[in-house]
C-alpha cells in the first residue's frame, strides 16, 4: 500500500496553505526556466483548441495557482508569437482554451484548494485524486505536466527498513541520516524505482511533443545521501522522538516502527533514472541554488512550523494527535541546536533541479 503523505489542510496557522513560502521561493527561482522551456520546446498540433495542463502534487495552494499561471502565460505567448498567429488578425480566436487538472493524493484537502481558485482565472479546473506513481490520465491526452517539490515523497517506506528481522532495520531513527549503509541504499532504491514508475505513467499520458516540467530538491553530486540538509532537518524530529522515548512518554516499539518516506537524490542519481526512459527526451536539466535562508533568532521556530505543515499528517496517523503535539513541541529546540552547528552552514550548497522532458513523437 502507498503512504498517504498529504500536507496540513485548511488555511489556519499550521496549514500548508499558510506555510509554503520555502516551496514558493524554489518555484520562483525556476519560473524563468519554465517560461523559456515552454517557449523553446513545446510542440502543439496546429488544430489544438484546448491545452490540457496538470499540476501533480498540487497540495492546497497557493503555489499551484502561481505555477499554472506561469504555464498559461508562456503558452499564450508562444501562440501569439508563432508564425501562424502573426498571419491572423483575430487574436482571441487563435488562442486555445486551457483545462487544468489539479492532482494530489485522495486525502489532500481539495476543498481548500478549490475555495482558493483565483477569481477571473483563464481556465477550467478539475481535481484528479490519486497517486502520481500510477496512471492518472488517458493516453496521449496531456500537453503540459508540472510537478514541483513533491517527488522526494516516496511511494512508501522501503519494507526492509521496517522489519525487525532485516539487516536493514532502521531501529531508533526516522530517516536514513544517521543509519547504516543498507538503510540508505534501501531508501535510494525505492526512490529510483518510484521515479521510474512516475516517468513511465507520464510517458503514456503526454501527447507527442508535450512537456513534463519537474522541480525537485536535490543534493550536490559530491555529497552522500545523509548530507542533504533537508533530511538533516527532518531527522531533528527523530531526535525529539528519541528524547520522548527515553523519558517514557512514547513507547519504544511505536517509535521504532515510524519512518518518513522521503529521499533527496543527487543530480546524477536523477539523471541515471531519467536516461533509462526511452520515451522522454531531456530538453533541460539545470541546477538552481536554494535561496539563502536568513539565520534570524526566530528562524528555527519558523522552520519548525513549516516542518509541521509538511509532516504532521504522517506523524499523526502513526502516533495519534496527543503524542503528535508532544513530538512537535520538542521539535523547535532540536532544530535550533542543529541550525547553530557549523555543519548547517552547508545549506548554501544544497540545490534544486529543474528538468524539462519532452514526449518523443
Ligand atoms: C511539499 S508539497 C508541494 C506542493 C506544491 N507542488 C508546491 O509547490 O507548493 C508535496 C505534495 O506532493 C503530494 N504527493 C506526495 N506523494 C504523492 C503521490 N504519490 N501522488 C500525488 N501527490 C503526492 C503531497 O500530498 C503534497 O501535497
From TrEMBL:
It comes from Oldenlandia corymbosa var. corymbosa. Its cofactor is Mg(2+). GO terms for molecular function: metal ion binding; methyltransferase activity. GO terms for biological process: methylation. This is OLC1v1037866C1. The keyword Ligase does not apply. The keyword Ribonucleoprotein does not apply. Keywords: Magnesium, Metal-binding, Methyltransferase, Transferase. InterPro entries: MeTrfase_7, MeTrfase_capping, SAM-dependent_MTases_sf. Pathway: Alkaloid biosynthesis. Signal peptide: none annotated. Belongs to the methyltransferase superfamily. Type-7 methyltransferase family.
Amino acid at each position: 500500500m502507498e503512504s498517504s503523505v498529504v500536507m496540513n489542510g485548511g488555511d489556519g496557522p499550521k496549514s500548508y496553505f499558510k506555510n509554503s513560502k520555502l516551496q514558493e521561493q524554489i518555484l520562483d527561482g525556476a519560473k524563468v526556466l519554465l517560461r523559456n522551456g515552454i517557449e523553446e520546446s513545446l510542440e502543439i498540433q496546429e488544430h489544438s483548441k484546448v491545452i490540457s495542463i496538470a499540476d501533480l502534487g498540487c497540495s492546497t495552494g497557493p503555489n499551484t495557482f502561481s505555477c499554472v499561471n506561469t504555464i498559461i502565460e508562456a503558452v499564450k505567448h508562444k501562440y501569439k508569437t508563432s508564425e501562424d498567429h502573426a498571419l491572423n488578425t483575430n487574436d482571441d480566436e487563435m488562442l486555445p482554451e486551457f483545462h487544468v487538472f489539479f492532482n494530489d493524493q485522495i486525502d489532500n484537502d481539495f476543498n481548500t484548494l478549490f475555495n482558493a481558485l483565483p477569481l477571473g482565472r483563464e481556465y477550467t479546473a478539475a481535481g484528479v485524486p490519486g497517486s502520481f506513481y500510477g496512471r492518472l490520465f488517458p493516453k496521449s491526452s496531456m500537453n503540459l505536466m508540472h510537478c514541483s517539490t513533491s517527488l522526494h515523497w516516496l511511494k512508501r517506506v522501503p519494507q526492509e527498513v521496517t522489519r525487525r528481522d532485516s539487516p536493514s532495520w532502521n531501529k531508533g531513527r526516522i530517516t536514513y541520516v544517521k543509519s547504516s549503509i543498507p538503510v540508505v541504499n534501501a531508501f535510494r532504491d525505492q526512490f529510483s524505482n518510484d521515479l521510474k514508475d512516475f516517468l513511465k505513467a507520464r510517458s503514456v499520458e503526454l501527447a507527442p511533443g508535450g512537456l513534463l516540467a519537474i522541480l525537485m530538491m536535490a543534493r550536490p553530486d559530491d555529497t552522500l545521501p545523509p548530507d542533504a540538509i533537508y533530511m538533516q532537518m527532518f531527522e531533528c524530529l527523530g531526535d525529539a522522538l528519541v528524547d520522548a522515548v527515553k523519558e517514557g512518554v512514547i513507547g519504544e516499539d511505536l517509535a521504532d516502527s515510524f519512518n518518513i518516506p522521503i529521499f533527496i537524490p543527487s543530480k546524477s542519481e536523477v539523471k541515471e533514472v531519467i536516461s533509462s526512459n526511452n520515451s522522454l527526451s531531456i530538453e533541460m536539466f539545470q541546477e538552481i541554488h536554494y535561496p539563502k535562508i536568513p539565520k534570524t533568532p526566530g528562524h528555527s521556530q519558523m522552520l519548525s512550523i513549516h516542518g509541521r505543515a509538511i509532516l504532521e499528517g504522517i506523524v499523526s496517523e502513526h502516533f495519534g494527535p496527543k503524542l503528535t503535539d508532544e513530538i512537535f513541541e520538542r521539535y523547535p529546540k532540536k532544530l535550533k541546536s542543529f541550525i547553530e552547528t557549523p555543519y548547517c552552514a552547508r545549506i548554501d550548497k544544497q540545490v534544486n533541479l529543474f528538468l524539462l522532458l519532452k514526449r518523443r513523437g
